[in-house]
Fold this protein.
Amino acid sequence: MIIDVKKNILIVGMGLIGGSYAEALKRYGFRVTAITRSRKSIDYALEHGLIDDGAAEVRADLVGEADIVVFALYPHVFIEWIEKNQHLFKPGALLTDVTGVKGSVVYKVQDILRPDCEFIAAHPMAGREVYGVENATSRIFNGANYIVTPTPKNTPEAIETCRELGLLLGFAQVAELSPEEHDEMIGFVSQLTHCIAVSLMTCNDAENIEKFTGDSFRDLTRIARINDLMWSELFMANKKALLDQMDLFDRQFKKLRDMIAEGDVDGMREVMRYSSERRAKFDKKQ
Amino acid sequence: MIIDVKKNILIVGMGLIGGSYAEALKRYGFRVTAITRSRKSIDYALEHGLIDDGAAEVRADLVGEADIVVFALYPHVFIEWIEKNQHLFKPGALLTDVTGVKGSVVYKVQDILRPDCEFIAAHPMAGREVYGVENATSRIFNGANYIVTPTPKNTPEAIETCRELGLLLGFAQVAELSPEEHDEMIGFVSQLTHCIAVSLMTCNDAENIEKFTGDSFRDLTRIARINDLMWSELFMANKKALLDQMDLFDRQFKKLRDMIAEGDVDGMREVMRYSSERRAKFDKKQ
Protein backbone atom coordinates (compact mmCIF):
# COMPACT_ATOMS: atom_id res chain seq x y z
CA MET A 1 0.00 0.00 0.00
CA ILE A 2 1.35 3.40 -0.98
CA ILE A 3 -1.02 5.41 1.18
CA ASP A 4 0.09 5.52 4.82
CA VAL A 5 -2.92 5.05 7.10
CA LYS A 6 -1.42 7.68 9.42
CA LYS A 7 -2.19 10.32 6.82
CA ASN A 8 -4.84 12.95 7.35
CA ILE A 9 -7.65 13.01 4.83
CA LEU A 10 -9.88 16.06 4.57
CA ILE A 11 -13.18 15.75 2.72
CA VAL A 12 -14.66 19.01 1.50
CA GLY A 13 -18.39 18.52 0.96
CA MET A 14 -20.12 16.14 3.35
CA GLY A 15 -23.05 14.92 1.26
CA LEU A 16 -23.93 11.43 0.07
CA ILE A 17 -20.60 10.81 -1.66
CA GLY A 18 -18.39 12.70 0.79
CA GLY A 19 -20.01 10.87 3.70
CA SER A 20 -19.62 7.51 1.99
CA TYR A 21 -15.91 8.24 1.39
CA ALA A 22 -15.55 9.12 5.08
CA GLU A 23 -17.22 5.91 6.21
CA ALA A 24 -15.04 3.77 3.96
CA LEU A 25 -11.76 5.49 4.87
CA LYS A 26 -12.32 5.62 8.63
CA ARG A 27 -12.28 1.83 8.69
CA TYR A 28 -8.59 1.80 7.72
CA GLY A 29 -7.60 4.07 10.57
CA PHE A 30 -7.03 7.29 8.62
CA ARG A 31 -7.72 10.51 10.46
CA VAL A 32 -10.68 11.78 8.48
CA THR A 33 -11.94 15.35 8.77
CA ALA A 34 -14.56 17.33 6.89
CA ILE A 35 -15.54 20.82 5.89
CA THR A 36 -19.03 21.43 4.61
CA ARG A 37 -21.48 24.33 4.64
CA SER A 38 -24.10 22.66 6.79
CA ARG A 39 -23.49 22.46 10.54
CA LYS A 40 -26.14 19.74 10.70
CA SER A 41 -24.16 17.53 8.30
CA ILE A 42 -20.99 17.95 10.34
CA ASP A 43 -22.84 17.10 13.54
CA TYR A 44 -24.34 14.02 11.93
CA ALA A 45 -20.94 12.88 10.63
CA LEU A 46 -19.33 13.38 14.04
CA GLU A 47 -22.15 11.64 15.92
CA HIS A 48 -22.04 8.66 13.58
CA GLY A 49 -18.27 8.31 13.72
CA LEU A 50 -17.76 9.13 10.04
CA ILE A 51 -15.17 11.82 10.84
CA ASP A 52 -12.75 12.72 13.63
CA ASP A 53 -13.20 16.46 13.33
CA GLY A 54 -15.05 18.88 11.12
CA ALA A 55 -16.27 22.42 10.61
CA ALA A 56 -19.06 24.27 8.85
CA GLU A 57 -16.60 26.91 7.69
CA VAL A 58 -13.13 26.77 6.12
CA ARG A 59 -10.99 26.13 9.19
CA ALA A 60 -7.31 26.79 8.42
CA ASP A 61 -5.98 24.04 10.71
CA LEU A 62 -8.14 21.34 9.09
CA VAL A 63 -6.96 22.33 5.60
CA GLY A 64 -3.35 22.85 6.68
CA GLU A 65 -2.92 19.44 8.29
CA ALA A 66 -4.47 17.41 5.43
CA ASP A 67 -2.16 15.24 3.32
CA ILE A 68 -4.99 14.30 0.98
CA VAL A 69 -8.00 16.50 0.26
CA VAL A 70 -11.06 15.04 -1.46
CA PHE A 71 -13.46 17.53 -3.05
CA ALA A 72 -17.05 16.33 -3.19
CA LEU A 73 -18.61 19.57 -4.41
CA TYR A 74 -20.53 20.85 -7.41
CA PRO A 75 -18.12 21.78 -10.24
CA HIS A 76 -18.34 25.58 -9.97
CA VAL A 77 -18.20 25.47 -6.15
CA PHE A 78 -15.10 23.29 -6.35
CA ILE A 79 -13.23 25.70 -8.63
CA GLU A 80 -14.22 28.72 -6.51
CA TRP A 81 -13.09 26.91 -3.36
CA ILE A 82 -9.62 26.29 -4.80
CA GLU A 83 -9.26 29.91 -5.93
CA LYS A 84 -10.23 31.23 -2.54
CA ASN A 85 -8.58 28.80 -0.13
CA GLN A 86 -5.60 27.18 -1.79
CA HIS A 87 -3.13 29.26 0.22
CA LEU A 88 -4.14 27.08 3.20
CA PHE A 89 -3.03 23.73 1.71
CA LYS A 90 -0.11 21.90 3.30
CA PRO A 91 2.90 21.97 0.96
CA GLY A 92 2.86 18.75 -1.07
CA ALA A 93 -0.82 18.09 -0.45
CA LEU A 94 -2.54 15.77 -2.89
CA LEU A 95 -5.98 16.85 -4.06
CA THR A 96 -8.60 14.69 -5.71
CA ASP A 97 -12.30 15.03 -6.47
CA VAL A 98 -15.50 13.16 -7.27
CA THR A 99 -16.79 15.49 -9.99
CA GLY A 100 -18.93 13.89 -12.69
CA VAL A 101 -17.48 16.00 -15.53
CA LYS A 102 -13.79 16.39 -16.19
CA GLY A 103 -12.76 18.43 -19.23
CA SER A 104 -14.30 21.66 -17.95
CA VAL A 105 -12.90 21.18 -14.44
CA VAL A 106 -9.56 19.34 -14.39
CA TYR A 107 -7.49 21.66 -16.58
CA LYS A 108 -8.86 24.75 -14.89
CA VAL A 109 -8.02 23.49 -11.40
CA GLN A 110 -4.56 22.31 -12.47
CA ASP A 111 -3.91 25.70 -14.11
CA ILE A 112 -4.73 27.78 -11.06
CA LEU A 113 -3.28 25.41 -8.45
CA ARG A 114 -0.15 26.20 -6.44
CA PRO A 115 2.83 24.41 -7.99
CA ASP A 116 3.71 22.58 -4.73
CA CYS A 117 0.38 20.74 -4.63
CA GLU A 118 -1.05 18.23 -7.13
CA PHE A 119 -4.58 17.65 -8.30
CA ILE A 120 -5.41 14.20 -9.66
CA ALA A 121 -9.01 13.91 -10.79
CA ALA A 122 -11.26 10.90 -10.26
CA HIS A 123 -14.89 10.00 -10.78
CA PRO A 124 -16.45 7.43 -8.47
CA MET A 125 -19.35 6.12 -10.59
CA ALA A 126 -21.73 5.48 -7.75
CA GLY A 127 -24.77 7.20 -6.36
CA ARG A 128 -28.26 6.89 -5.01
CA GLU A 129 -31.57 8.65 -5.64
CA VAL A 130 -31.36 10.11 -2.14
CA TYR A 131 -29.05 12.82 -0.94
CA GLY A 132 -27.15 14.01 2.06
CA VAL A 133 -24.73 12.53 4.57
CA GLU A 134 -27.65 10.85 6.36
CA ASN A 135 -27.88 8.45 3.40
CA ALA A 136 -24.15 7.88 3.10
CA THR A 137 -22.94 4.31 2.93
CA SER A 138 -19.82 2.86 1.35
CA ARG A 139 -21.93 -0.06 0.10
CA ILE A 140 -22.74 2.07 -2.97
CA PHE A 141 -19.14 1.55 -4.12
CA ASN A 142 -19.36 -2.27 -4.24
CA GLY A 143 -19.48 -3.53 -7.79
CA ALA A 144 -19.07 0.00 -9.15
CA ASN A 145 -16.39 1.67 -11.29
CA TYR A 146 -13.84 4.25 -10.20
CA ILE A 147 -12.24 6.26 -12.98
CA VAL A 148 -8.99 8.18 -12.67
CA THR A 149 -8.57 10.92 -15.31
CA PRO A 150 -4.94 12.04 -15.32
CA THR A 151 -3.46 14.76 -17.52
CA PRO A 152 0.19 15.18 -18.65
CA LYS A 153 0.67 17.37 -15.57
CA ASN A 154 0.14 14.46 -13.19
CA THR A 155 2.97 12.44 -11.64
CA PRO A 156 2.95 8.63 -11.69
CA GLU A 157 2.92 8.67 -7.89
CA ALA A 158 -0.25 10.76 -7.70
CA ILE A 159 -1.98 8.55 -10.27
CA GLU A 160 -1.01 5.45 -8.33
CA THR A 161 -2.19 6.94 -5.04
CA CYS A 162 -5.50 7.87 -6.59
CA ARG A 163 -5.98 4.38 -8.00
CA GLU A 164 -5.23 2.91 -4.60
CA LEU A 165 -7.78 5.21 -3.03
CA GLY A 166 -10.38 3.74 -5.38
CA LEU A 167 -9.51 0.24 -4.24
CA LEU A 168 -9.56 1.23 -0.56
CA LEU A 169 -13.01 2.74 -1.05
CA GLY A 170 -14.22 -0.66 -2.22
CA PHE A 171 -14.77 -0.13 -5.93
CA ALA A 172 -14.84 -3.27 -8.06
CA GLN A 173 -12.86 -1.75 -10.89
CA VAL A 174 -10.40 1.09 -11.18
CA ALA A 175 -9.83 2.41 -14.68
CA GLU A 176 -7.99 5.28 -16.34
CA LEU A 177 -9.28 7.62 -19.05
CA SER A 178 -8.25 11.02 -20.36
CA PRO A 179 -10.64 13.83 -19.32
CA GLU A 180 -11.97 13.92 -22.89
CA GLU A 181 -12.56 10.17 -23.08
CA HIS A 182 -14.23 10.35 -19.69
CA ASP A 183 -16.61 13.11 -20.76
CA GLU A 184 -17.62 11.31 -23.94
CA MET A 185 -18.22 8.10 -22.02
CA ILE A 186 -20.12 9.82 -19.21
CA GLY A 187 -22.16 11.76 -21.76
CA PHE A 188 -23.29 8.40 -23.05
CA VAL A 189 -23.66 6.04 -20.07
CA SER A 190 -24.78 8.56 -17.47
CA GLN A 191 -25.99 11.91 -18.82
CA LEU A 192 -27.83 10.57 -21.86
CA THR A 193 -29.52 7.96 -19.66
CA HIS A 194 -30.73 10.69 -17.30
CA CYS A 195 -32.06 12.73 -20.25
CA ILE A 196 -33.92 9.67 -21.50
CA ALA A 197 -35.36 8.84 -18.07
CA VAL A 198 -36.55 12.40 -17.51
CA SER A 199 -38.08 12.61 -21.00
CA LEU A 200 -39.86 9.28 -20.55
CA MET A 201 -41.17 10.31 -17.15
CA THR A 202 -42.54 13.62 -18.41
CA CYS A 203 -43.72 12.86 -21.97
CA ASN A 204 -47.14 11.46 -21.12
CA ASP A 205 -49.42 13.13 -18.60
CA ALA A 206 -51.85 10.23 -18.33
CA GLU A 207 -53.19 9.80 -14.83
CA ASN A 208 -52.89 6.60 -12.80
CA ILE A 209 -50.25 4.99 -15.02
CA GLU A 210 -48.51 3.82 -11.86
CA LYS A 211 -51.36 1.36 -11.27
CA PHE A 212 -50.52 -0.53 -14.43
CA THR A 213 -46.80 -0.28 -14.75
CA GLY A 214 -44.41 -3.20 -14.77
CA ASP A 215 -40.75 -3.37 -13.88
CA SER A 216 -39.57 -2.11 -17.27
CA PHE A 217 -40.98 1.36 -16.79
CA ARG A 218 -39.79 1.47 -13.19
CA ASP A 219 -36.25 0.50 -14.22
CA LEU A 220 -36.11 3.05 -17.01
CA THR A 221 -37.32 5.86 -14.76
CA ARG A 222 -35.52 5.07 -11.50
CA ILE A 223 -33.09 7.90 -12.23
CA ALA A 224 -35.91 10.23 -13.32
CA ARG A 225 -36.00 11.26 -9.67
CA ILE A 226 -33.19 13.68 -10.17
CA ASN A 227 -31.38 16.46 -8.32
CA ASP A 228 -32.23 19.34 -10.67
CA LEU A 229 -29.54 21.69 -9.36
CA MET A 230 -26.70 19.20 -9.72
CA TRP A 231 -27.69 17.63 -13.03
CA SER A 232 -28.46 20.86 -14.85
CA GLU A 233 -24.97 22.00 -13.89
CA LEU A 234 -23.41 18.71 -14.99
CA PHE A 235 -25.25 18.87 -18.32
CA MET A 236 -24.03 22.41 -18.93
CA ALA A 237 -20.47 21.48 -17.99
CA ASN A 238 -20.46 18.69 -20.60
CA LYS A 239 -22.77 20.23 -23.17
CA LYS A 240 -21.04 19.30 -26.41
CA ALA A 241 -20.37 15.66 -25.56
CA LEU A 242 -23.91 15.26 -24.22
CA LEU A 243 -25.57 16.77 -27.30
CA ASP A 244 -23.51 14.45 -29.51
CA GLN A 245 -24.70 11.42 -27.55
CA MET A 246 -28.32 12.62 -27.57
CA ASP A 247 -28.14 12.90 -31.35
CA LEU A 248 -26.70 9.40 -31.70
CA PHE A 249 -29.56 8.04 -29.62
CA ASP A 250 -32.21 10.03 -31.44
CA ARG A 251 -31.04 8.78 -34.84
CA GLN A 252 -31.23 5.16 -33.68
CA PHE A 253 -34.65 5.71 -32.08
CA LYS A 254 -35.96 7.19 -35.33
CA LYS A 255 -34.53 4.28 -37.31
CA LEU A 256 -36.48 1.87 -35.12
CA ARG A 257 -39.60 4.04 -35.41
CA ASP A 258 -39.39 3.91 -39.20
CA MET A 259 -39.02 0.13 -39.15
CA ILE A 260 -42.16 -0.18 -37.02
CA ALA A 261 -44.08 2.28 -39.22
CA GLU A 262 -43.07 0.37 -42.34
CA GLY A 263 -43.60 -3.07 -40.85
CA ASP A 264 -39.95 -4.01 -41.41
CA VAL A 265 -39.97 -7.02 -39.07
CA ASP A 266 -36.63 -8.38 -40.32
CA GLY A 267 -34.95 -5.03 -39.66
CA MET A 268 -36.46 -4.84 -36.18
CA ARG A 269 -35.38 -8.37 -35.33
CA GLU A 270 -31.84 -7.65 -36.49
CA VAL A 271 -31.59 -4.57 -34.25
CA MET A 272 -33.04 -6.52 -31.33
CA ARG A 273 -30.57 -9.36 -31.78
CA TYR A 274 -27.66 -6.91 -31.89
CA SER A 275 -29.09 -5.23 -28.80
CA SER A 276 -29.31 -8.52 -26.90
CA GLU A 277 -25.78 -9.44 -27.88
CA ARG A 278 -24.34 -6.10 -26.72
CA ARG A 279 -26.35 -6.09 -23.50
CA ALA A 280 -24.90 -9.46 -22.48
CA LYS A 281 -21.54 -7.74 -21.94
CA PHE A 282 -22.97 -5.40 -19.34
CA ASP A 283 -24.02 -7.84 -16.67
CA LYS A 284 -22.69 -6.68 -13.36
CA LYS A 285 -19.69 -8.45 -11.96
CA GLN A 286 -20.07 -8.54 -8.18
CA MET B 1 -63.72 -17.94 -3.79
CA ILE B 2 -65.67 -18.37 -7.01
CA ILE B 3 -63.24 -20.77 -8.62
CA ASP B 4 -63.67 -24.32 -7.39
CA VAL B 5 -60.27 -25.91 -6.77
CA LYS B 6 -61.65 -29.14 -8.19
CA LYS B 7 -61.70 -27.54 -11.63
CA ASN B 8 -59.36 -28.62 -14.38
CA ILE B 9 -57.10 -25.93 -15.75
CA LEU B 10 -55.36 -26.44 -19.07
CA ILE B 11 -52.44 -24.21 -19.99
CA VAL B 12 -51.65 -24.00 -23.68
CA GLY B 13 -48.05 -22.87 -24.11
CA MET B 14 -45.62 -24.03 -21.43
CA GLY B 15 -42.98 -21.30 -21.50
CA LEU B 16 -41.88 -18.88 -18.80
CA ILE B 17 -45.36 -17.48 -18.15
CA GLY B 18 -47.32 -20.69 -18.72
CA GLY B 19 -44.98 -22.56 -16.40
CA SER B 20 -45.23 -19.87 -13.75
CA TYR B 21 -49.05 -20.04 -13.92
CA ALA B 22 -48.85 -23.81 -13.49
CA GLU B 23 -46.59 -23.55 -10.47
CA ALA B 24 -48.85 -20.99 -8.80
CA LEU B 25 -52.09 -22.84 -9.50
CA LYS B 26 -50.90 -26.33 -8.53
CA ARG B 27 -50.44 -25.09 -4.98
CA TYR B 28 -54.19 -24.64 -4.58
CA GLY B 29 -54.92 -28.21 -5.61
CA PHE B 30 -56.27 -27.57 -9.12
CA ARG B 31 -55.68 -30.32 -11.65
CA VAL B 32 -53.31 -28.53 -14.02
CA THR B 33 -52.50 -29.86 -17.46
CA ALA B 34 -50.54 -28.45 -20.38
CA ILE B 35 -50.23 -28.60 -24.12
CA THR B 36 -47.14 -27.16 -25.75
CA ARG B 37 -45.14 -27.84 -28.90
CA SER B 38 -41.97 -28.94 -27.14
CA ARG B 39 -41.85 -32.45 -25.65
CA LYS B 40 -38.90 -31.32 -23.55
CA SER B 41 -40.97 -28.59 -21.91
CA ILE B 42 -43.75 -31.04 -21.06
CA ASP B 43 -41.23 -33.48 -19.60
CA TYR B 44 -39.66 -30.73 -17.53
CA ALA B 45 -43.07 -29.58 -16.25
CA LEU B 46 -44.08 -33.14 -15.34
CA GLU B 47 -40.78 -33.92 -13.63
CA HIS B 48 -40.90 -30.73 -11.58
CA GLY B 49 -44.51 -31.23 -10.51
CA LEU B 50 -45.78 -28.15 -12.35
CA ILE B 51 -48.51 -30.15 -14.12
CA ASP B 52 -50.49 -33.36 -13.63
CA ASP B 53 -50.58 -34.32 -17.28
CA GLY B 54 -49.49 -32.87 -20.57
CA ALA B 55 -48.87 -33.43 -24.25
CA ALA B 56 -46.71 -32.07 -27.04
CA GLU B 57 -49.68 -32.20 -29.41
CA VAL B 58 -53.33 -31.16 -29.16
CA ARG B 59 -54.78 -34.09 -27.19
CA ALA B 60 -58.58 -34.05 -27.37
CA ASP B 61 -59.08 -35.40 -23.83
CA LEU B 62 -56.93 -32.69 -22.24
CA VAL B 63 -58.84 -29.95 -24.04
CA GLY B 64 -62.23 -31.58 -23.53
CA GLU B 65 -61.92 -31.97 -19.76
CA ALA B 66 -60.66 -28.42 -19.07
CA ASP B 67 -63.00 -25.99 -17.30
CA ILE B 68 -60.55 -23.12 -17.69
CA VAL B 69 -58.06 -22.84 -20.52
CA VAL B 70 -55.19 -20.34 -20.27
CA PHE B 71 -53.48 -19.42 -23.54
CA ALA B 72 -49.83 -18.41 -23.11
CA LEU B 73 -48.95 -18.18 -26.80
CA TYR B 74 -47.80 -15.58 -29.30
CA PRO B 75 -50.78 -13.57 -30.61
CA HIS B 76 -51.01 -15.10 -34.08
CA VAL B 77 -50.44 -18.63 -32.77
CA PHE B 78 -53.22 -18.10 -30.23
CA ILE B 79 -55.77 -17.04 -32.85
CA GLU B 80 -54.82 -19.92 -35.17
CA TRP B 81 -55.11 -22.38 -32.28
CA ILE B 82 -58.67 -21.26 -31.52
CA GLU B 83 -59.68 -21.49 -35.17
CA LYS B 84 -58.30 -24.98 -35.52
CA ASN B 85 -59.17 -26.60 -32.18
CA GLN B 86 -62.18 -24.90 -30.64
CA HIS B 87 -64.47 -27.80 -31.49
CA LEU B 88 -62.67 -29.69 -28.71
CA PHE B 89 -63.58 -27.30 -25.88
CA LYS B 90 -65.90 -28.52 -23.13
CA PRO B 91 -69.25 -26.75 -23.39
CA GLY B 92 -69.17 -23.73 -21.06
CA ALA B 93 -65.37 -23.64 -20.90
CA LEU B 94 -63.87 -20.34 -19.83
CA LEU B 95 -60.85 -19.19 -21.83
CA THR B 96 -58.32 -16.58 -20.83
CA ASP B 97 -54.88 -15.52 -22.06
CA VAL B 98 -51.67 -13.71 -21.17
CA THR B 99 -51.20 -11.82 -24.43
CA GLY B 100 -49.40 -8.49 -24.20
CA VAL B 101 -51.61 -6.76 -26.79
CA LYS B 102 -55.38 -6.74 -26.66
CA GLY B 103 -57.19 -4.74 -29.35
CA SER B 104 -55.91 -6.84 -32.22
CA VAL B 105 -56.56 -10.14 -30.41
CA VAL B 106 -59.56 -9.98 -28.07
CA TYR B 107 -62.28 -9.01 -30.55
CA LYS B 108 -61.05 -11.46 -33.15
CA VAL B 109 -61.06 -14.38 -30.71
CA GLN B 110 -64.48 -13.42 -29.33
CA ASP B 111 -65.84 -13.14 -32.88
CA ILE B 112 -64.76 -16.58 -33.99
CA LEU B 113 -65.39 -18.40 -30.71
CA ARG B 114 -68.19 -20.93 -30.22
CA PRO B 115 -71.14 -19.26 -28.48
CA ASP B 116 -71.16 -21.78 -25.61
CA CYS B 117 -67.65 -20.81 -24.47
CA GLU B 118 -66.42 -17.44 -23.19
CA PHE B 119 -63.10 -15.70 -23.66
CA ILE B 120 -62.08 -13.14 -21.04
CA ALA B 121 -58.74 -11.54 -21.79
CA ALA B 122 -56.06 -10.70 -19.25
CA HIS B 123 -52.50 -9.45 -19.24
CA PRO B 124 -50.22 -10.51 -16.39
CA MET B 125 -47.60 -7.73 -16.39
CA ALA B 126 -44.67 -9.84 -15.34
CA GLY B 127 -41.67 -11.34 -17.06
CA ARG B 128 -37.98 -12.04 -16.97
CA GLU B 129 -35.09 -11.62 -19.42
CA VAL B 130 -34.85 -15.41 -19.64
CA TYR B 131 -37.25 -17.76 -21.35
CA GLY B 132 -38.71 -21.22 -21.15
CA VAL B 133 -40.44 -23.34 -18.53
CA GLU B 134 -37.04 -24.05 -16.94
CA ASN B 135 -37.04 -20.46 -15.69
CA ALA B 136 -40.66 -20.44 -14.57
CA THR B 137 -41.40 -19.22 -11.06
CA SER B 138 -44.53 -17.66 -9.65
CA ARG B 139 -42.31 -15.22 -7.72
CA ILE B 140 -42.38 -13.00 -10.82
CA PHE B 141 -46.03 -12.21 -10.04
CA ASN B 142 -45.31 -10.76 -6.58
CA GLY B 143 -45.70 -7.01 -6.54
CA ALA B 144 -46.80 -7.00 -10.19
CA ASN B 145 -50.01 -5.93 -11.92
CA TYR B 146 -52.64 -8.14 -13.52
CA ILE B 147 -54.97 -6.46 -15.96
CA VAL B 148 -58.34 -7.82 -17.05
CA THR B 149 -59.60 -6.36 -20.35
CA PRO B 150 -63.30 -7.20 -20.73
CA THR B 151 -65.48 -6.28 -23.69
CA PRO B 152 -69.30 -5.85 -23.78
CA LYS B 153 -69.50 -9.54 -24.76
CA ASN B 154 -68.17 -10.67 -21.38
CA THR B 155 -70.38 -11.78 -18.50
CA PRO B 156 -69.86 -10.41 -14.98
CA GLU B 157 -69.14 -13.97 -13.81
CA ALA B 158 -66.30 -14.45 -16.28
CA ILE B 159 -64.81 -11.08 -15.36
CA GLU B 160 -64.99 -11.94 -11.68
CA THR B 161 -63.44 -15.37 -12.23
CA CYS B 162 -60.61 -13.82 -14.20
CA ARG B 163 -59.96 -11.24 -11.49
CA GLU B 164 -59.87 -13.99 -8.91
CA LEU B 165 -57.39 -15.93 -11.01
CA GLY B 166 -55.08 -12.89 -10.87
CA LEU B 167 -55.27 -12.86 -7.08
CA LEU B 168 -54.68 -16.63 -6.85
CA LEU B 169 -51.60 -16.25 -9.04
CA GLY B 170 -50.19 -13.86 -6.47
CA PHE B 171 -50.40 -10.51 -8.25
CA ALA B 172 -50.29 -7.45 -6.02
CA GLN B 173 -52.95 -5.58 -7.96
CA VAL B 174 -55.76 -6.60 -10.25
CA ALA B 175 -57.13 -3.86 -12.49
CA GLU B 176 -59.61 -3.55 -15.33
CA LEU B 177 -59.14 -1.66 -18.61
CA SER B 178 -60.84 -1.73 -21.99
CA PRO B 179 -58.69 -3.36 -24.70
CA GLU B 180 -58.06 0.10 -26.18
CA GLU B 181 -57.03 1.66 -22.86
CA HIS B 182 -54.80 -1.35 -22.25
CA ASP B 183 -53.03 -0.99 -25.60
CA GLU B 184 -52.39 2.71 -25.13
CA MET B 185 -51.05 2.10 -21.64
CA ILE B 186 -48.90 -0.86 -22.70
CA GLY B 187 -47.64 1.12 -25.69
CA PHE B 188 -46.33 3.61 -23.19
CA VAL B 189 -45.11 1.70 -20.12
CA SER B 190 -43.88 -1.43 -21.85
CA GLN B 191 -43.38 -1.16 -25.61
CA LEU B 192 -41.97 2.36 -25.67
CA THR B 193 -39.58 1.43 -22.86
CA HIS B 194 -38.32 -1.55 -24.88
CA CYS B 195 -37.86 0.67 -27.95
CA ILE B 196 -35.86 3.13 -25.85
CA ALA B 197 -33.73 0.42 -24.26
CA VAL B 198 -32.92 -1.18 -27.61
CA SER B 199 -32.10 2.18 -29.20
CA LEU B 200 -29.84 3.16 -26.29
CA MET B 201 -28.07 -0.20 -26.40
CA THR B 202 -27.39 0.03 -30.14
CA CYS B 203 -26.81 3.75 -30.78
CA ASN B 204 -23.14 3.88 -29.84
CA ASP B 205 -20.66 1.26 -31.01
CA ALA B 206 -17.87 2.34 -28.65
CA GLU B 207 -15.87 -0.60 -27.39
CA ASN B 208 -15.38 -1.44 -23.72
CA ILE B 209 -18.15 0.84 -22.45
CA GLU B 210 -19.09 -1.91 -20.02
CA LYS B 211 -15.88 -1.23 -18.08
CA PHE B 212 -17.05 2.23 -17.20
CA THR B 213 -20.75 1.94 -16.83
CA GLY B 214 -22.72 2.67 -13.69
CA ASP B 215 -26.08 1.40 -12.57
CA SER B 216 -28.03 3.98 -14.59
CA PHE B 217 -27.02 2.52 -17.92
CA ARG B 218 -27.53 -1.03 -16.68
CA ASP B 219 -31.03 -0.20 -15.44
CA LEU B 220 -32.03 1.50 -18.67
CA THR B 221 -30.80 -1.39 -20.79
CA ARG B 222 -31.85 -4.39 -18.70
CA ILE B 223 -34.72 -5.00 -21.12
CA ALA B 224 -32.48 -4.41 -24.14
CA ARG B 225 -31.85 -8.15 -23.98
CA ILE B 226 -35.01 -8.89 -25.84
CA ASN B 227 -36.80 -11.78 -27.53
CA ASP B 228 -36.78 -10.47 -31.09
CA LEU B 229 -39.45 -12.85 -32.36
CA MET B 230 -41.97 -12.04 -29.64
CA TRP B 231 -41.41 -8.30 -29.41
CA SER B 232 -41.42 -7.61 -33.14
CA GLU B 233 -44.79 -9.37 -33.25
CA LEU B 234 -46.09 -7.40 -30.23
CA PHE B 235 -44.92 -4.11 -31.79
CA MET B 236 -46.69 -4.92 -35.06
CA ALA B 237 -49.87 -5.94 -33.22
CA ASN B 238 -49.99 -2.57 -31.47
CA LYS B 239 -48.42 -0.39 -34.13
CA LYS B 240 -50.59 2.71 -33.98
CA ALA B 241 -50.60 3.09 -30.20
CA LEU B 242 -46.85 2.43 -30.06
CA LEU B 243 -45.99 5.00 -32.75
CA ASP B 244 -48.10 7.60 -30.91
CA GLN B 245 -46.18 6.96 -27.69
CA MET B 246 -42.82 7.03 -29.49
CA ASP B 247 -43.72 10.43 -30.92
CA LEU B 248 -44.74 11.77 -27.50
CA PHE B 249 -41.39 10.67 -26.11
CA ASP B 250 -39.40 12.02 -29.03
CA ARG B 251 -41.01 15.46 -28.72
CA GLN B 252 -40.15 15.65 -25.03
CA PHE B 253 -36.58 14.42 -25.65
CA LYS B 254 -36.10 17.11 -28.30
CA LYS B 255 -37.46 19.76 -25.97
CA LEU B 256 -34.85 18.81 -23.39
CA ARG B 257 -32.15 18.74 -26.07
CA ASP B 258 -33.04 22.28 -27.11
CA MET B 259 -32.89 23.48 -23.52
CA ILE B 260 -29.41 22.02 -23.13
CA ALA B 261 -28.26 23.47 -26.46
CA GLU B 262 -29.58 26.89 -25.51
CA GLY B 263 -28.33 26.74 -21.92
CA ASP B 264 -31.87 27.11 -20.55
CA VAL B 265 -31.02 25.98 -17.01
CA ASP B 266 -34.33 27.17 -15.54
CA GLY B 267 -36.28 25.19 -18.12
CA MET B 268 -34.19 22.07 -17.46
CA ARG B 269 -34.63 22.36 -13.73
CA GLU B 270 -38.38 22.73 -14.11
CA VAL B 271 -38.61 19.56 -16.22
CA MET B 272 -36.40 17.71 -13.74
CA ARG B 273 -38.53 18.78 -10.78
CA TYR B 274 -41.70 17.66 -12.56
CA SER B 275 -39.96 14.39 -13.41
CA SER B 276 -38.96 13.78 -9.78
CA GLU B 277 -42.46 14.54 -8.59
CA ARG B 278 -44.09 12.14 -11.07
CA ARG B 279 -41.54 9.40 -10.42
CA ALA B 280 -42.32 9.42 -6.70
CA LYS B 281 -45.72 7.88 -7.49
CA PHE B 282 -44.14 4.85 -9.11
CA ASP B 283 -42.30 3.33 -6.18
CA LYS B 284 -43.12 -0.33 -5.96
CA LYS B 285 -45.53 -1.43 -3.29
CA GLN B 286 -44.40 -4.84 -2.10
Q: What stands out?
A: Chain B has two domains: 8-177, 182-280. Residues 8-177 of chain B form a domain with the Rossmann fold fold (CATH 3.40.50.720).
